[in-house]
Structures
1.
Amino acid sequence: MQAFLQVLASGLLMGLLYALIAVGLSLIFGLMDVVNFAHGDFLMAAMYATFGLWLLTSIDPLLLVPAVTALMFVFGATVYAGIVRFAMRAKGNTGMVQIFATFGLATLMQGAAQFFFTPDYRSITESWMGDKTFDIGGVFLPIPQLFAGFLSLVVFGGLYLLMSRTDFGKALEATREDQGAVALVGIDRNRVFALGWGLGAALVGIAGAALAAFYYIHPQVGGPFALTAYVVVALGGFGSVFGALVAGTIVGLVEALTALVLPPALKSIGIYSLYLAIVFVRPRGLFGKL
Amino acid sequence: MAVVTPAPVTNAAHVTHRRRQLAAGGVVLVAVALLPLFVTDIFLLNVLVLTLLYAAVSQSWNILGGYCGQISLGHALYFGIGAYCASLLYVNFEITPWLGMLSGGALSALLALALGYPCFRLKGHYFVIATIVIAEIGLLLALNLELTGAALGIQWPIGDDSWLTLQFARSKLPYVYLALALLAVTWLVTWVIEESRWGYWWRAVKDNPEAAQSLGVDIFRSKMAAAAVSAFLTAIGGAFYAAFVAYIDPDSVMAFRFSLLFALPAVLGGIGTLWGPALGAAILIPLTEVTRSYAGGSGSGLDLVLYGVLIIVVALLRPDGIVSFLHRPTRNRAG
């Protein structure tokens, strides 16, 4: 029983982190119908940014979260202004142009990570959270994972307020509803898109900084997380913030439970089968409009 | 909107155009076949084989992705099945790779039909992600099953050079001609399909499914047929690749990046066009291989940086593919 609770708790915490990784992808998709094939590499970049800053300054990774988030915001907005903006102008087969423009970016980022940090596996070896664990009735929760899960909930709360209470949130919502109409009321579409990409990247940046505290870091680390994020976004419905939270949690739990039944190396099969089972029954995901 | 024409067009100008295409194909075939007379460098011949192979596989992807408009980013699955089928049959039972190729192709086509049944109800990104996820399940299984040699892969035994076993240790030339034949076959299949009833149906399904359906096109069967042909030819490419490199492991034939790399030449050259995949591969693969050999040797990642920039620039500069430079705007492709 205790072992089962342990699995559930680990799955839940990982699920909250999956939700945080995926929500930026979902936000960008909802805003402008673009799937970012470099999303996993945004995560990787945030992890290396945390690692690099920690190496340079020896500041605890916990305290580096705001700095990494800010860096990733700028990075995301720059990617929009430098690449995505042009990809969206393509007249014919826009979908493929976006896929390959962001796939090219992913390749470029992996190369750059390898160039600056070598392909070696890195990890942050000294941090306040370190190997501490929290014990609830025999269920052990590692503090870094607990922090990541908690951070995810806080960020989702903040995101809800941002989307519902601020002008920026309203501009995002309006732009995704009707891109032409917002131009008429004086909202600069390009600016909203750039801020949307900044926000999306900042969100995955927070996830990356939290993940870097307890996960190994290497140039290809983003791939599996990106795949999980696509599944989360599709399950939760493209563009839905709330859907990402629910789907992320479900995915985390299913993955943990799969590892009980199948060898750990096959644990992702559980997530992938879940995705297929759900879209075969509901072709628009759990929360997408049918 | 495309005009759905149920029967082949037979006006004279059109027939001439088709014949010219075929003649051009013949000229390219002869030109490439003569190339090894002037090129003897092993590295360059290797690049030539890979270019022809990618052109052929991309041409196969193009049948489903380009003509029928069903964007699959999971074709590495079919490539891998072809490679594993040929390897397992040859290594365990000494069955000639020629038969391995055909059985890999048949297996892939059947699987494509079985998967297409539930998947073709999905639209847009839901479909694309389903193809990625299914291929990823295949990769995980190949990485962990004993049957496929798990992560260690399968090594082909070293034997005498023979057209029966498709093993040639002394010369790359047979592989050049095999790859060229593979490309010729996929090109010819595409050429025939373009003007067949299926070809018209597929383009109609891609351009405007609602209109196609109202005119009596069976959308579901169209997609299934395109998927089967596309998977069959992709698996043949995988089987050839296995014979060519004589060693395969899951990461070298089934990884997600291959699904993207198979689609890339078609997108770059011109998606849903007869010449697009070959043109795209002719530019992309030599550039990739040269970058890899000059900048990648040190493992510094510089080759990936250059390759990434190349993909971005091409995607942004030429969204309709390079073929659009050559396209004469005088006639409508759909008739």
2.
Amino acid sequence: MGCDIVTVSTDTQFVHLAWQRSEKELAGVRYAMAADRTGRIARMFGVYDEGSGHALRGTFMLNPEGKLLNMEMNFYNLGRNIDELMRKFKANVYMTKKTNEVCPSKWKDEGDKTLKDPGAAMVGKVHEALQG
Amino acid sequence: MSDTAGALRLGQVVPDFELPTYDPVKGDFGTFSLENQRKKGRWTILFFYPADFTFV
């Protein structure tokens, strides 16, 4: 899909190695695990917890030009839904190809209803556009 | 970008950065570089989490 997932914590790459090799849940991991020891990058994205030195659960999607298109942040105790992440990713890729379309909340994959050329004619008529 | 600058906002181009990595596919250490991602035309998903050996 032309996308690289990189996980980031304030642990070292050495601990990443040890964790990945010992935790069976991580046996199939195919993404790079990055070490942000100083928290500089976590701070840049606004997810560094100064009190604990940990990064909060933040997810950030960057297009091939490096532009930030999505962000999601959860506190420590809530996990993230990978299906929703993939939905957003597919939508971003789709809208890069179809720049006159926008993906509504129920959009899941190519072929699903989009809104085309949203403009003055669609104001107050989104319901009709979604049915059409 | 200075270390004290405010957090990034949507629509901004993220300044280039590099981080050391462990790559389980290669079984070796490496480097993530945002500049390389741009050069290769790759999308990037950064997935921050609190700590290894905890319950993600």
